[in-house]
Amino acid sequence: MTSSTTDHTSDAVRSDPDGLDTPEGLTTVDSVGPSADPAPDAGAHSHVSGGVTVPVTGGAPFLHPVGSADLADHPVPSGREELWRFTPLRRLRGLHADAPLTGDPLTATWSAPEGVRVTELQGDEARSARGRSGYLPTDRPAARAWHEAARTLLVQVPADAQIAEPVEVTLTGQAGGEATAGWTVIEIGSHAKADIVLIQQGSTTLTDVVEIVVGDGAQVTVAALGEWAADAVHLTHHHVKLGRDATIKHIALSFGSDLSRAMTSVDYAGPGGDLQFLGLYFADTGQHLEHRLFVDHTAPHCKSDVLYKGALQGKGAHTVWIGDVLIRKSAEGTDTYEMNRNLLLTEGTRADSVPNLEIETGEIVGAGHASATGRFDDEQLFYLLSRGIPSDIARRLVVRGFFGEVLLKIGVPSVVERATETIERELAVGGY
């Protein structure tokens, strides 16, 4: 099978530093420009919706609606909306509608180095902590969490602190039947440096929001490890407020759950912000894993770099990746690139991938996006087999190499170790 690839670059052309011509394990067909979308192969088990590069004014409201804490501003989605058209609403257990959020909150435990404060806020204090990043809910599940989450988990790193060990917060669900809501706020003081690891596990039906406030000149890595039980349903929104000359590496690792849908967005609070979004996911039989990103370039001379990779195996395994980058008129000197790659390991899988790039100013350093989906490269497998490597080991090596690019960039040893172990378990499930 020949894979589907989209690659669009703005007039300020920027080459792919990783070599788009030959994605690991994929055979590609390149296209340039929004009119060059390849038609999906009717006999294939993948689907790629072509990326779009468009000049806009004020952004496309169907991709990033105006936020509001008023639940009345967020009607129950029908599935025909652009933001919901890939999501199987019938599997959400009413999280998108009006299912009671009366289940017990997730149990929170943490390991915080000296100088880091982790607090569970209750009642009015919990509600008053929400929105510190400037975030307002952009869909109904998030708006419900705003009003109904019983607590707010607050993680604070003081200004100028240099935290050598990762801050680990583990959220454990106790039951998947009763829906619940959660809210987390992470505050990194100016010129501080820290690694925050959120481990999500257990059985749950959850809608939650994670706000991340990064002070001026701070450097932070935030890694969210989705290691849910197989029956979990999780709708989440991570929102980043990135200060002047601040740096964030945001990592999303999605493995468990029956269905997970993650929205991640960023606002630049000043010039010089540097953002890296990394994602890694592995979908099994019947599993739905969905990632949506919105990078809102509002300040000048900022950077964003997005790399998400996923593998799929088993009948009905479905992944969705939507990457939207908006460069506003005020964001002169922007340098941005986003890429998504998917590897289909078996028949009966489907990967939807839609990169979007919206540009309001031509005064940028560079902007581009790319998407590729395909099966194992037969030539690559033949090369390994011809050197006496058994077929199952050869396929395992190809998958390891495919994910290796993301793993090398994570930079937090404990996160890399957990992700690698999970990938090995996933490969064992597939018989590799």
TrEMBL record:
Residues 176-402 form the SUF system FeS cluster assembly SufBD core domain. InterPro entries: Fe-S_cluster_assembly_SufBD, SUF_FeS_clus_asmbl_SufBD_core, SUF_FeS_clus_asmbl_SufBD_sf, SUF_FeS_clus_asmbl_SufD. SUPFAM superfamilies: Stabilizer of iron transporter SufD (SSF101960). Residues 1-52 are annotated as: Disordered. It holds the Pfam family SUFBD_core. PANTHER family: PROTEIN ABCI7, CHLOROPLASTIC. Belongs to the iron-sulfur cluster assembly SufBD family. This is Fe-S cluster assembly protein SufD. It comes from Nakamurella flava.
